[in-house]
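User: Hey, my collaborator sent me this sequence without any context and asked if I could get a structure. I don't really work with proteins. Can you help?
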Amino acid sequence: MLEALEQVGGAVDDCAETTLWGLSDDELLASLDATHVLAQRLATVQLGLVRELDGRGLAVAQGASSTAVWLRDRLRLSGRGARQLVQLAATIDAAPPAVRDALLTGAISVEQGRVVAETIAALPVEAGPEVADKATHLLVTWADRFDPTSLSRLGERVLTHVAPELADQAELKALERATERAEARRHVTLSEQQNGQVRLSGNLDTETASLLREAIDPLCAPAGEYDDRSPGQRRADALGEICRLALRTGQLPDNGGDRPQLVVTVSLDELVNGVGAGTLETGTRLTPGAVRRLACDAGVLPAVLGGNSQVLDVGRQRRLFTGPLRRALVLRDGGCAFPGCDRPPRWCDGHHIRHWADGGVTALGNAVLLCGYHHRLIHSGDWTVRIAADGQPDFLPPGWLDPLRTPRRNLYHLRC
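Assistant: No problem. I've predicted the 3D structure and written it out in structure-token form, which is a compact way to encode the shape of the chain:
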């Protein structure tokens, strides 16, 4: 074998010395196809070698803890790449002979061979060798037209074509196994980052993911013509709005139903001037803007400290937009009052037009309903909201959008 491989290496040298710009279009395409087929055939030979040395325990005999570790050092692979190579060699070795034959002739790629081998291995025991051979032949035939991803999807239904009497039962069992795996692997992780962000990661089972999609999809559409958020930003904001809605239901355990409480620890001067950052119970810091925004319709427990950290006052929770006042606000605005926004009342916060920290009162004449996105927009300072003489909220756009700052209203929630 070594002599033959040396001859192949010599042929590769000849190919590498070829002047590619001198090839015709047809020669260039044919050469690309030929190199791909040869690469897959050589890869199949390598997989056979890996499987053989793994079976002999050669790597362990030479002092390595595993074949993968030995391959990592010898072939200078990544640990992950070495493990995948050993696993792929075992998968192809356990496949029907027709799979290896197709690989050695270049009829299928190594990745397609892996898909075929895994599909056949997943067939129910009652299918038997005859059904497995039929499925193998069909999948190898399909490999001429479909990439590995499409071939894998087709493989999920291969029994429908070769053994329809087993297909429904096998599909149900496969679905149950997949569901069990998904449920066992489900998790959500919140990881604090160094840049003021929290990374959200995890896996959901199909049912939970469907519920999440149904919940966030209605909130993922752009909130009017001035919404320049990316789709990912809209999804993130939608998740936050769902959490706010859940907190408002009053049906969550422990402190569920209470709006977020912020213990704001700042100097008295910073509180008055609105420049002090806030600190959550977890120790996370919030900007002054975030503190003031959340304080519009959230329970805030002010803990004001003097210069020597002496507690001057720990006030009781401020009056919120609840009860009859909340109902009056909903009746007046009908939903988010920002021009062009269609968010319903349940997704909205009550916003103090003049912030309570600046002496603003919790009253209908100092309030407006805003969805999460437009609440942040108003607190950013470019747009201004005011209550007009007729008691309805007017929004004044920033000067760069409208130099005249002509007042605008939301006509979406008008009642006939």
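In plain terms: The chain is about 50% helix and 10% strand. You can pass these tokens on to your collaborator as they are.
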